[in-house]
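A brief tutorial aside. Many learners find it easier to grasp structure tokens once they have seen a single protein encoded end to end. The record that follows does exactly this for Crp/Fnr family transcriptional regulator. Read the sequence first, then the structure, and try to relate runs of similar tokens to stretches of the chain.
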Amino acid sequence: MFFDNEMPTVVFEIGKKRTFLKRDNIYKLNSSPVYCYFILSGTAKIYIDHKNGRRSILDFVGKNDWLGELSLFCYESDIKENRVLQDVECLEFNMNELRKLCKENAKVSFYFASYIANKLLARSYRMSENLNYSLNRRLAAFILQYQQNSIYSIPHTDVSEYMNVSYRHVLYVIEQFCELGVLKKEKGKEYIISDIEKLKELQEK
């Protein structure tokens, strides 16, 4: 998600550095959020397990994303499940302190309103892309967004759930990218981006 509105200094100054390790849950399920977070590096997923046994991945958060910011303005009756996929470095903010700032400082309120509006537009655009663009293009853009220092390691099962396609289809496209010399498979589940310019070209096709 592209968002070019810089965080107000008054907000940045009350943030505290926090680290979550891979497989940690940032929020506890069925608890009221006390903090929200600004992601400096790493990736986490937000998902719901349905009563019928199926799972829906609502979104991924990465560098320069907020997590929990909706609770500044509305009561979330149930916390969505979240899981760290790549170690997350972030700034932690007390929810009550941020709410107070939003009430007292119009610039802070506008900053969060702009961020939330941009997130809504990004999700709407993603839904439209799912209907109108090939998986090759969408997956190339996804890899570029969530790579860390040219390393991509999001599980294929998560990507297939997020993009509403089969695991086999995701694996097929990943293998195509490897054959094109765009990705190189490493040990475990990691891929090295070996040709980032070609990957950028793929996201435009």
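Self-check: The mean pLDDT is 88. If you spotted this yourself, you are ready for the next section.
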